[in-house]
Amino acid sequence: QVQLVQSGGGLVQAGGSLRLSCAASGLKVSKYVMGWFRQSRGKEREFVAVIGWSGGTILYSASAKGRFTVSRDNAKNTVYLQMNSLKSEDTAVYFCAHSRGFSIESSRYDYWGQGTQVTVSS
Q1: Cα 56 to Cα 38: distance, rounded to the nearest angstrom
Q2: Over the stretch 42-91, which tens digit does the pLDDT of each residue have?
């Protein structure tokens, strides 16, 4: 049984930092594509970042590039999203997800974490 359990998130002031974690069980994150998405109230889920199975292929959304960093600890079977210089528009529920192929489309992801709220106060 595959499970993705998220932690981190919370309330932070604009300009601050947060780190989200996504611990996997039932699959090895080193062998699959892992992505991060977010969903703000009233909006569709949007792509944030993705890391390929080899770790060498990483892609960020335009809004995340330069501020967010996705990484993976294979020994802990955990994927991270380090978020710096946070802005109020980053406020959303963040999700990690698993895919068998490298993609920025949420429809290509089959297992999802439970989501974690990130709130950035201005």
Answers
A1: 23
A2: 999 999 999 998 767 999 999 999 999 999 999 999 999 999 999 999 99
What is the 3-state secondary structure of 80-119? EEEECCCCHHHCEEEEEEEECCCCCCHHHEEEECCCEEEE
Q: Tell me the average pLDDT of the chain.
A: 95
Stated as kind and residue range, the H or E segment containing 51 is: strand 46-51
Q: How many CB atoms lie within 10 A of CB 54?
A: 9
Q: Do 68 and 87 meet the contact criterion of CB atoms below 8 Å apart?
A: no
For the four alpha carbons of 47, 48, 52 and 58, in that order, the dihedral sign comes to positive
Q: Residue 21 pairs with which residues in a beta bridge? A: 7, 80
Torsion, CA 40, CA 44, CA 49, CA 54, rounded to 10? 140
